[in-house]
Amino acid sequence: MTVLERGVRPHLIAGSARGATGPETIDVIDPATGETIATIPAGGPDDADAAVGAARAAAPGWAGRDPAERGELLKASARALRGAVNELAEIQTRENGKPLADSAAGVEAGIGAIEQYAEIGPLHRGAALAGSWNALDTMVPEPRGVAALIVPWNDPVAIACGQIAAALVTGNTAVFKPSERTPLSGARLVELMELPPGVLNLLLGDGRAGQALVEHPDVDIALHTGSVETGRQIAVSCGSVLGRKALLELGGKDALVIDEGVDPAWAAEQAASGAFANAGQVCTSVERIYVHHSLAEAFIEALVGEAQSIAVGNGLDPGTQMGPLVDDRQVEVVHRQVSEAAAAGARVLTGGEPRDAPGSFYPPTVMTEVEGSMAIMREETFGPVAPVQVVSSFDEGLELASATDYGLAASVLTPSQVNAQRACRELQVGTVKINSVWGGAPGGGAEPRGVSGSGFGYGPELLDELTQTKVIHIEPAPPAEGGATDAR
Ligand code: NAD
User: Fold this and answer.
1) CATH number assigned to the domain comprising residue 114
2) What residue ranges of the chain have pLDDT lower than 50?
3) Which atom of ligand 1 is nearest the CA belonging to 452?
């Protein structure tokens, strides 16, 4: 895998490699071993300026191509990526620790998103208006211009593919800044896509490169998928430039409410999958559990069993079901929340201590006797922790689930149609899932609520976000004196 062996990775701007311009570099660490696997430049304002300049220069030519041609070029990129699924999956696993099969599923999902946007992009259209008989009135979507695409590390290829494809198929050009924790899969993705020079540019670096990018005067729209804290900074950066749009898909503190009458073993399987998949590092991971007292004991016992049965190890090992967290910084965040809750009276039934060995491992952890005032029940954890609060009624569970500033998603397990429908209406989140912690039909695009963000980051509606609509009114000029209306 040459991508991991090439020393300091360059940015890719206007189709060419651009080496580091400053002295500072950032190491990319394999979280399963703690080893440095590559180094990237800490891009700064000059690099952002070069990348945005290249995207701006390519913008008129790209916007002027037929949408169907842009779709065909993206389909060709998707074909190239299909031939490299294993390579991309392995790079991703080396960067963020995800088990290889999950990593490959993420890459496949990303390629699927490119194919879908390549197909539906050319069908994205405006509207004809009913104006005067002698006039033509239409609403036409146009590209916004240069898009800044700022991506996190937890499913980096999948998220990048969706943003890139939607931005490009609608006629925008882009500067893509992958997370500094997963830049190698991002770099390889751009290389493999082989788009015309300047259409898709790669800027490497951390938040400083991201900030220089979103604050660049020539950026028209910023798409950020990431944490609430960064989203807030990007909203401020974009808000200070009139006309610049920010699309923010941020973190969550998703609740799982378990009603009476539910099979406790099945509820435990659902809760474990929701809380421990990708080591809890999914934006819609289950982060708080409210279980009805009538099944609490059996549920908690089964959940502890689920947690203890998970094989934790290096994601490259085929037997691994849960890999490490992305890095030691993330382990610290998770462990701080767990230990503070324990010190305040919560009980840790299993897990709760980082592994004392190389790598950023944290075990699947189940806690009870937690309270709403604890960070573990209030702040996004983004780790493999299932904190369980026992409630006296479904109403109490629903009420506690809603007592949060976040608004990404929530799940409810219930045999009651009445309670299911109440949950769908009352939960103030972008996505409600009944009787499954995952799932959803293709094309689902939700608007996150509260501090979890704003706008559609997925689905066909993302094409609306990436275009701006112009109203056009055309009517014939009056005849010139003694002449015809329009001789041509
Ligand atoms: P992050 O916000 O720290 O970083 C995301 C990206 O923003 C990185 O590329 C980073 O370098 C960049 N960045 C950091 N500071 C910046 C600044 N001031 N200006 C511009 N760019 C900046 O998030 P993360 O830790 O990489 O990812 C985890 C977070 O992402 C979690 O909160 C998770 O819930 C969220 N997430 C949300 C979704 C969703 O669809 N809602 C999907 C995946 C992950």
Assistant:
1) 3.40.605.10
2) 1-2, 487
3) 41
